[in-house]
Design the sequence.
């Protein structure tokens, strides 16, 4: 089996904007450890990202400062956004290294509102699920009901989320059916002592100052989350590594001192679940590398919590692939026609909503396309033998979408319905040049393009988080008619 590194961040940012350098939060290599490898995936879950009712439409169209900041850091390191999801103040971002993109299958997002009896999204959960190298994975970010005395509401929140989150992939229609589940967020469980023996906030803080070698067992035995996991009322299906860091809530903003208006509590958690024996002769595992808080971040009244896991997946697992033929010549803007080919493996089923997009060579998100074409009008040849690959010849008039010199890629997106996507193939970079001012061939990694598509500016890192699930591109004015045929 192969091992992939997943790095998780959960942080209630308390409606604040980024005000500190986030490199250490992401555990980037430093001058003292320059050879440390980066994770394969970053999963970032934020709560209380600033969101106001009058700005909900704008929130859905443009990214927030947190998304922009994380993208500037991670895209510079070669990561792209596999999927993002936002529900008011909840935000979930999944970044992947480029080499894993064509192994992402059945990407889908879901959400559940639990605020105001399910009417409002200030509380609730968002999730992103996908298959990766033959294993199914579900990532959940949540913000549950607050306040120490509302334990029953948090339990109800959990069970509502489990019941309402449903996915289109039959084998993993429920969160708990996935091989791997990682549940992160501000779960809001507090420390809860028996009546008559409950210490004050000041007494808890004094106890914390006396803790030696990160041993918090005396306080954690009063943790509400661990209690309901034991009783089976909520999260009993999940595990949590040993907590060896102090409570992450509530701090005075801008400092490291607890705000004694609330009892210090471990509200911010990262839980996991593995179906270890879901496959014959294979044991799935998620091995913890680190689970800790980041105390030097002071912009919020919460401290961020991070975890790194080594996750086992099948080695050399491939299915449903599309290979693009090399493009050896320069594509000139204004040419009447440009042809290339891609080959579909025998197990690729062409769905009505499948499409091929043109992207910048250094694209930052799977939603960051320039132009595209559905494969709906392509008829597969009746002469193709069963189990044999098929070759598609594509014809894209350059002027319809690519109007700026630079380097670009084709990406094949399988979309069996409006909510589920798979990435089946990505071409090598190819050059688009101006006839009047021909470019000298350069490394596309050194000179990224700055292309634009008709009617809009090219998306930047701050504009790439609109969720295009369910997009009906046939209704968009920039949809153009191209010619695709099967050889």
Sequence:
């Amino acid at each position: 089996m192969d091992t992939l590194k997943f790095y998780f961040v959960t942080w209630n940012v308390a409606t604040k904007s980024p005000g500190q350098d986030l490199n250490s939060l992401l555990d980037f290599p430093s001058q003292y450890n320059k050879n440390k490898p980066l994770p394969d995936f970053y999963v970032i879950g934020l709560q209380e990202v600033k969101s106001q009712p009058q700005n909900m439409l704008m929130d859905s169209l443009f990214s927030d400062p947190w998304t922009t900041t994380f993208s500037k850091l991670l895209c510079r390191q070669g990561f792209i956004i596999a999927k993002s999801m936002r529900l008011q103040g909840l935000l979930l971002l999944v970044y992947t290294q480029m080499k894993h993109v064509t192994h992402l299958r059945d990407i889908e997002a879901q959400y559940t509102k639990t605020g105001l009896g399910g009417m409002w999204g200030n509380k609730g959960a968002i999730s992103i699920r996908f298959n990766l190298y033959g294993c199914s994975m579900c990532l959940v970010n949540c913000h549950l009901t607050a306040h120490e005395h509302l334990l029953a509401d948090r339990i109800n929140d959990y069970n509502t989320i489990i019941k309402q989150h449903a996915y289109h992939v039959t084998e993993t229609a429920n969160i708990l059916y996935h091989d791997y589940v990682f549940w992160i967020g501000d779960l809001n469980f507090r420390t809860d002592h028996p009546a008559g023996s409950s210490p004050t906030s000041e007494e808890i803080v004094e106890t914390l100052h006396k803790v030696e070698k990160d041993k918090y067992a005396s306080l954690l035995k009063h943790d509400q989350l661990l209690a309901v996991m034991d009783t089976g009322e909520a999260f009993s299906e999940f595990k949590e590594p040993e907590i060896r860091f102090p409570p992450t809530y509530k701090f005075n903003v801008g400092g490291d001192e607890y705000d004694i208006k609330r009892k210090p509590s471990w509200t911010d958690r990262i839980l996991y679940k593995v179906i270890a024996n879901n496959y014959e002769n294979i044991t799935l595992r998620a091995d913890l590398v680190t689970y800790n808080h980041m105390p030097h971040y002071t912009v919020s009244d919460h401290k961020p919590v991070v975890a790194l896991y080594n996750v086992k997946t099948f080695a050399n697992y491939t299915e449903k692939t599309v290979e693009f033929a090399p493009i050896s010549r320069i594509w000139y803007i204004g040419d009447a026609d440009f042809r290339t080919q891609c080959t579909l493996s025998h197990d690729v089923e062409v769905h009505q909503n499948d499409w091929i997009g043109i992207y910048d060579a250094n694209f930052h998100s799977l939603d960051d396309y320039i132009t595209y074409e559905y494969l709906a009008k392509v008829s597969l040849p009746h002469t193709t033998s069963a189990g044999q690959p098929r070759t598609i010849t594509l014809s894209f008039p350059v002027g319809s979408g690519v109007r700026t010199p630079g380097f670009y890629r084709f990406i094949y997106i399988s979309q069996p319905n409006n909510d589920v996507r798979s990435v089946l193939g990505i071409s090598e970079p190819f050059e688009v040049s101006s006839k009047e001012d021909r470019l000298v061939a350069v490394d596309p990694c050194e000179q990224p393009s700055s292309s634009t598509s008709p009617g809009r500016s090219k998306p930047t890192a701050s504009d790439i988080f609109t969720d295009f699930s369910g997009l009906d591109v046939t209704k968009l004015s920039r949809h153009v008619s191209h010619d695709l045929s099967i050889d």
In short: The radius of gyration is 24 Å. The helical segments are 56-61, 65-76, 151-164, 201-210, 217-220, 224-231.
